[in-house]
Amino acid sequence: MTSLDHGKFTRVTTYFHTLLALDVFLLFFTGYSVMFNDELWWMVEFMGGNASVLAIHRLAGFALIALTVFWVTLLLIGPGRRKNFRAAMPSRGDTEAFIQDVKFVLGRADERHPNARQFAGYESDEVPLLSYIGKGVLWIFTVELVLLMVSGLLIWNKVGLSEFYQSKAVVMGFVTFHGLLGVIMLMGVMFHIFEHGFHPAFYPVEMKAFIAKDAMPEHEDQDDDEDHEGTGIERLSLRPSWGLASNIMGGAVAIGIVSVLLASIFDEGYPVPRELAVGGGPANLLLTVGVNIGVFVLLVGLVLSTYGNVLRSRYESQREREEVAAADGGEPVDDD
Amino acid sequence: MSSSDDADGLSEGLAVLISGIVGIVVALAAVWYVTGLGDASTEELYRIDLTTGGGELTGVGADWTAGNTDPLLDLLVALTHAADVLMGAFILLMLFVHWGAFRRLASRMQEPKRSPSEEGVAADGGQRTDGPKSTPSEGSGGDRE
Known about the structure:
The complex is a heterodimer of chains A (336) and B (145). Chain A has one domain. In chain A, 64% of the residues lie in helices and 0% in strands. Chain A has 10 helices and no strands. By secondary structure, chain B is an all-alpha fold. Helix content of chain B is 53%, strand content 3%. In chain B, a hairpin with a 4-residue loop joins strand 1 and strand 2. Classes of the chains: A mainly alpha (336), B mainly alpha (145). At the A-B interface, helix 3, helix 5, helix 6, helix 7 and helix 8 of A face helix 1, helix 2 and helix 3 of B.
């Protein structure tokens, strides 16, 4: 059976998602290895030292501004894009979807709400462009990116800023503000990796953000005419490694989120000079392990994003072969 | 797709090209602007020595203290800490909700099939099958495709 859950994004959107992901991962790896230096000192060394890490961070920051402005402009002038803007607006269904999700986990609802459903299967017509989580991610990203870009640009030239305020400590305050802001995104991205990598029907990666609308077949499901109850998820078989992998990743994401949150309080850097204790706070072993687990989660995300693109490319070449076969006059062969 | 959505009737390719150029130009202009702010001239820096506590503290320490006690920045940092903690708690809740939902969905799916490696490979490196599939008349001879 197939599901047409994916194929909601255009080709440009899928490429944009990949580029943004790569860029944000690069910003996380460089930025937080500096901010959480007590825990991630080895990453700074690994990436060629402080000067090199900050140079990469600025380059990636430049790319982030270019990508974000590109996206906003495209939303305004691109064909058919404005209706996507409306589709991304929060609605009543989103609150209901959240409540129903909680009920679903507690066993008080039989299905997830359409606005929450990732695997829709037979009921994919009911599923909106973005789930309530997808909308949340989009809006949090928008607000965060704007604030991060503005604060990032302000601290780009520290001499200029310190001249403006006539104070070096204020400039450090801006650096801290910039780092603390990104923590929300850091935690959100860890969750995003779990949400789209470890859904039992899609594990190890959900292809929604990789396979574009135009690459989806018009009709793939011979059962289209039949009437089905539910999504049909019971017809899919689970991957053998899902249980172990999802538990390990779920645990790692939880530890990662808690650790970076604690580290952001201990290692805030401002107002560090109150005690003149560089690095700030207790550098303890548990926190170090936790923050490193968080970075491991990000690494898994980077690998899954790359894997999604490998699968996309494999899928597209397979489709091409089928089309060539059909154009020859033969029938495309289903050889599985 | 309604026609009112197609602003100016631009094609996707042209829209992408224009947006790409706008993105790069804005990024270049932003970086150019901030790097041009201020010069490293010490004439401009710290022309006024900061004092805090009504002039009790002056000199190097006064700079740190003044920066640390800037009310607007203190407020911003405190607000951001609060936002981090609130959002962190919410994201954790969402993680556990999804983790639980995924487990419930997984329980509806079919048990994993045996992987090909379990049934496909024999100890001598060949392929293990469920038994001879050939009929007696085809059964003689060596390796065949």
